[in-house]
Amino acid sequence: MLCETNRTILTVNGLFPGPEIRARKGDTIYVNVTNIGPYGITIHWHGVRQIRYPWSDGPEFVTQCPIPSNSSFLQKIVLTEEEGTLWWHAHSDWSRATIHGPLIIMPAYGKMYPYKFDQEHTIVIAEWYTRDTKAIIDEALESGGDPDLSVAYTINGQPGDSYSCSNGSAYNKTVVRGKTYLFRIIHSGMNEEMFFGIAKHNLTVVGMDGAYLKPLKINYLMITPGQTMDVLVTANQTPGRYYMVFSPFVDTNAPSNENVTRGIFQYNDNYNHSETPILPELPGFTNKSDAGNFTIQLRGLNSKEHPSKVPTKITRNITIMEALNARPCPANKTCSGPQGTMHSASLNNITFSAPSISILQAYYNNLQGVYNKTFPDTPPFIFDYTGNVSALGDAANVSTEVLMINYNEEVEIRFQGTNFAAENHPMHLHGYSFYVVGMGDGNFSDSYVSRYNTVDPPYVNTVGLPKNGWTAIRFKADNPGVWFMHCHLERHASWGMDTVIVVGDGAKKHQKVLPPPKDMPPCSVS
């Protein structure tokens, strides 16, 4: 691929993307993860709430230590309310670049989809690198500089015909005129949001992150790393060949891969099959307004079968300020970050530092000295977050802080972007989906609460915080345990734009974290 013939990559069962796992709502899945790779690995079931069972959630040094080479870990995936498209991926260093795959959750037996389609197809968008991704991020963290960029985007492992050496291998889908197709789109890419469209065809977005949406008819969508979308497309145009294109959305001055990847949506009728496909008209790379205009139109289905249950009696209000920072270069070292510093990132001015054993094991076994319970509910000081910040220092404190939340609290988190190297940040919370009740540009104001959508907001696990803007989410803290929260742009997560939410046990037996399995990976070997 891409004129390379001898790359070695980490895969699951020899596949890129990895194998699709299918289940029904409410199932419990057991997956035996055997690591025969050269270094420790963990697997996360993205969007699965794992009620009371964080032991299989996967983020390294948060809920477990990595599975060492030549050993196995039997993971239990507990499905409850999830229905639709989710995915699984490695959650250690940058291994998820190639270790990922779909997790499809169909309705329970006897239940129907709230929409009709004739056929379904899964589309996994990914990023391709020319070197081992663990080496890339290890070197970048050592030097403080930017990690290598990917060199291509892929659709189901194929870069498509806009790259040399891959002309003959574009992803293509042959369709029958008049039929409707469900595309399950998974953005497993590392660092870039994407616009997507199919030339001359409307898209109807009907689901996201394992929950249903009110059907939204549109000619393009914007999807961030970590998100999934279920999209209906009816083959109702003149028979021919049409490009389906993923094109990056880049709202930052940071280095980025501005290639596109193309697949082909082709009719099975009689026409000249050698004709060049038609290209869709997608928003330009830097079109922030079109990205935002798509996102704010999304609404939860809120039907009798799939009601919205938005918390309205908020007992805990948290504001989290997001920033990209620079750390001073250590003495006697040359650093390749901005002006000779080291890149870092923070939430409420704290750069997350992962411990050497897992926070969940420390919490469950009451081990002291692994983390502090002092992640603040507000930024350390108030300023014009999205205004001129040039007079303010951009260093943050490096530590392992967790945010403590009581069982069953009704929580609102307001993510506030800043003008410190501003860009869109897709924020992902483990153990929960949440309602996106509000979003806007500039600094959050209490007067915006009256404009919240508390009727049918989208129920998601990953939400884009707009560049120099704010996003408000709500959830009921009904899942006890240790849950990672982080930016799903991998370079920001590696730089420390993360924290851990610890939801305490409830009083009753069924409100407590279940005990760990006997084969938890050890925290010393790896």
Structure characterization notes:
- The chain is 6% helix and 35% strand.
- It has 4 helices and 30 strands.
- Rg computed from alpha carbons, rounded to a whole number of angstroms: 22 Å
Helix/strand-derived category reads: mainly beta
Q: Count up the helices.
A: 4
Mean pLDDT: 95
Percentage beta strand: 35-45%
Distance between the termini: 32 Å
Share in helix: under 10%
User: Spatial order of the strands in the main sheet?
Assistant: 8-7-10-15-12-13
Write down the overall geometry.
globular
Spans of at least 5 consecutive residues with low confidence: none
Largest sheet: 6 strands, mixed
Strand segment tally: 30
Catalytic activity: 4 hydroquinone + O2 = 4 benzosemiquinone + 2 H2O
Protein name: Laccase
Subcellular location: Secreted, Extracellular space, Apoplast
Domain Plastocyanin-like: 2-107, 120-269, 375-505
Brief synopsis:
This protein is mostly beta strands. The chain has four helices and 30 strands.
What key phrases describe this protein's structure?
526 residues; mainly beta; six-stranded mixed beta sheet; 4 helices
Topology:
Elements (H helix, E strand, L loop, with lengths): L20 E4 L3 E8 L7 E4 L24 E8 L5 E7 L9 E7 L12 E10 L4 H11 L8 E4 L16 E4 L4 E8 L5 E6 L4 E6 L2 E8 L2 E3 L4 E7 L6 E9 L11 E7 L20 H8 L20 E12 L14 E6 L2 E3 L6 H6 L32 E3 L2 E4 L4 E7 L8 E5 L4 E8 L17 E2 L1 E4 L3 E8 L4 E7 L2 H6 L2 E6 L23
